[in-house]
Design brief:
InterPro entries: QdtA_cupin_dom (IPR008894), RmlC-like_jellyroll (IPR014710), RmlC_Cupin_sf (IPR011051). Pfam families: FdtA. This is dTDP-4-dehydrorhamnose 3,5-epimerase-like enzyme. It is a single chain. Helix content is 7%, strand content 45%. By secondary structure, it is mainly beta. It has a single domain, classed as Jelly Rolls, CATH 2.60.120.10. A 5-stranded antiparallel β-sheet has the order 1-9-6-11-4, with no helix packed on it. It has a 5-stranded antiparallel β-sheet with strand order 8-7-10-5-12. The chain is globular, with a radius of gyration of 15 Å. The chain binds thymidine-5'-diphosphate (TYD). Thymidine-5'-diphosphate (TYD) binds next to strand 4 and strand 5.
């Protein structure tokens, strides 16, 4: 459920040369199988619009900011991501939409699965129906 969505603080090292953030070991709650990222996203773009049967994800605003709407079929929340050392953990069966991309923003996604269209739920009614069944 939406209560399992959480912000993960990514450990960082800071010195006069800047910040270095590290994702290793148990920093995220699954083994990473795939990394992808969105960039050059027009500010009026709307991404996501799906849930996953298998995939768990961590979404990071590597640069700039955007908003993530999460929805477990009962409760919706909007979360702004704008810190490169914070990840939003999203378990399976959560509908997500991403919008309000700032200019130059980069949305990094760490995924627990390889890409497989079969495990996507891209229709909101299907998502709601699946939760009932
Ligand atoms: P889409 O799921 O619409 O992106 P988003 O959720 O960010 O809005 O994916 C866009 C296209 O990219 C779609 O044709 C599927 C393809 N794709 C891959 O081939 N591999 C991947 O790992 C991902 C995430 C998408």
């Amino acid at each position: 459920t939406i209560n399992d969505v959480k912000i993960i603080d990514i450990p960082k090292v800071h010195d006069e040369r800047g910040f270095l953030a590290v994702i290793e070991k148990d920093a995220i709650p699954f083994a990473i199988k795939r990394v992808y990222y969105l960039y050059d996203v027009p500010s009026d773009s709307f991404r996501g619009g799906h849930a996953h049967k298998e995939q768990e994800s961590v979404i990071i605003a590597l640069s700039g900011s955007f908003e993530v709407l999460i929805d477990d079929g009962k409760t919706k929340r909007r979360i702004m991501l704008n810190k490169p050392n914070q990840g939003l953990y999203i378990p399976t069966d959560i509908w997500r939409e991403i919008d309000n991309f700032s200019s130059g923003s980069v949305c990094l996604v760490l995924a627990s699965t390889e890409y497989d269209e079969v495990e996507y739920i891209r229709d909101y009614d299907d998502f709601k129906n699946q939760l009932l069944g």
